[in-house]
Amino acid sequence: MSHATRLSTIHRDSATGLLWWRHIVDAIILRIDSSNPEAEMQSETINGAVFETWDIDEVADAWAANRIVLIDVRTVQEYSFEHIEGALLLPMPFFNAEKLPGQSEKQIVFHCGSGVRSEKVARAAIAAGITKVAHMAGGFAAWKAAKLPYIGTNLGTGAPQKVNAGA
Length: 167
What we know:
Elements: E1 2-12, E2 19-31, E3 40-46, E4 49-54, H1 56-64, E5 68-72, H2 76-81, E6 88-89, E7 107-111, H3 116-127, E8 132-136, H4 139-145, E9 150-153, E10 160-163
Parallel strand pairs: 4-8, 5-6, 5-7, 7-8
Antiparallel strand pairs: 1-2, 2-3, 3-4, 9-10
């Protein structure tokens, strides 16, 4: 089951504090798990391309099943301090959609610290002609809040260490 709606929102850039207006787009809410009516993935169709917003559980499940390529668009410093093990780093300032790998085997899902930068990068990928892109709602902060495993920094030694490894 799905339904369509029109979206129009104003966003505040967390880095600069500037407000920006997201153009009105058609959004289609798709139910992805018919056994759980509460489980929905947000999906927008933008000029024929599909832009999806995945929640933490959807990303974690797909990541564990090796169905996605997870690309972290945070800075090198943020990634070095803590990151999802195995996620690729492609900082937003260096993003070039034309250099992304194809998605014939695994879908690309972008993530950042809060979901703001990854959404911008995903929309830039669509603008560059990629027809199906996703980003992780809530970003790395939501991943950590869900107590999912990641690589952090031992503040006593400075060495990387697994955090929530038993989760």
